[in-house]
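Example record used in the benchmark description.
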Amino acid sequence: MTESASDPAGDVDKSGGMTEVRRQEALQITGALQAAIFNSANFSSIATDAKGVIQIFNVGAERMLGYAAADVVNKITPADISDPKEVIARAASLSLELDTPITPGFEALVFKASRGIEDIYELTYIRKDGSRFPAVVSVTALHNDQHEIIGYLLIGTDNTDRKQIEIEQKLLGQRLRDHQFYTRSLFESNIDALMITDPSGIITDVNKQMEALTGCTRDELIGAPFKNYFTDPERAEAGIKLVLLKKKITNYELVARDRDGKETVVSYNATTLYDRDRRLQGVFAAARDITEQKQAEALILNMALHDSLTQLPNRRLLCERLGQTMAASQRSGRYAALMFLDLDNFKSLNDTQGHHVGDLLLIEVARRITGCVRVVDVVARFGGDEFVVILNELNTDKGKSATESGMVAEKLRAALDKPYVLKFTKEGKAESTVEHRCTTSIGVVVFVDHEGSQDEILKWADTAMYEAKEAGRNMIRFHESNPVVTA
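Model output (structure tokens):
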């Protein structure tokens, strides 16, 4: 069967992956590279088992070091042909860098590679005749199908013949070094969801974390638009464009959505990606799950705006809600009311039973107040045993609004006048019950638009509340500019 006109190279299947022909060609190229590496006399290739004993000693190693393969295979480790002082120094340096004790010897030469860290270093090799030469060594851990380390590959180049090595690097090392740069071990071990896209936002590579984030396989993701995996595709696409414009972006918030609909808030961080000739290749991006961070921020914000005991809005949030009420009143022309409530007989409970029992009463007061008002209204703990209620969206007529707020105030007064039965358990003792009577004095101010500032409205309601206390407590009083309504 011939290749279709739309795919003359025959290198991409319908899912966007490589065809079997291309896979075989890639394998052949890889095999040719491996053969070239192990048969080359221009650099040494030394492969060891997991304990460091040399198993393969290529032609280049023989030429550089003067040993025959038979002299070293199954007999020594690469540490035995390295400058011992430099090995000791390397072990000490890595121990400090990685904050873990590393034994001088073969472990020092391969420790980073054993942890999946790309490692290229310089040291002095010692030839069989005792002469020395500086070498650059690249170490790679060798894994079996179970991802267990079965050995190490140490590729060394003679630094005294750098020009020749540069030629070999250009011919043979470019693809290897590029591959090392994008090595799967580094790519896959990252805690973030990593992806590479072309400049138009089409995904060209991902790691396992990206698969987990989207619920899609790598084959499904490659070739698909990056924006498809977020709740706001336009914002995701704008993120790609922003990277191309600014070269780098950080903490760009997106919400990822997997194939089952699960949403995850992520911090998108990305930078432009170039080849060695500085030609733009696309975007390298990392998406970090910040769900827990957002939850923590929400909790901190909630704690900052709510009373920890009653969970009602605190004074700070009250002022914010009052400002919103005043703005809404300005738009609609409807009156609103603010009530200041102060418990009449609270201190005696604290003095006789303790603050823990007083806290139980305050929690019950908050529950009763909330049960007397609408969802659109606001209930806040102003401090101590003081509470504030904001009634929103009353009538456009002041008198009718005062009547409505008076009815709610009476409902609150009656609810808070009922006895409180408080149950508690002291450490090591049986459950106790305390019954307490605690009425409330209520001051009310009815307002529209911006008849006064927030502070003035609160002050007016507070003054009316003190008038209720002076009148005998367990009463309701309106601010003097409002109709007078008593309990």
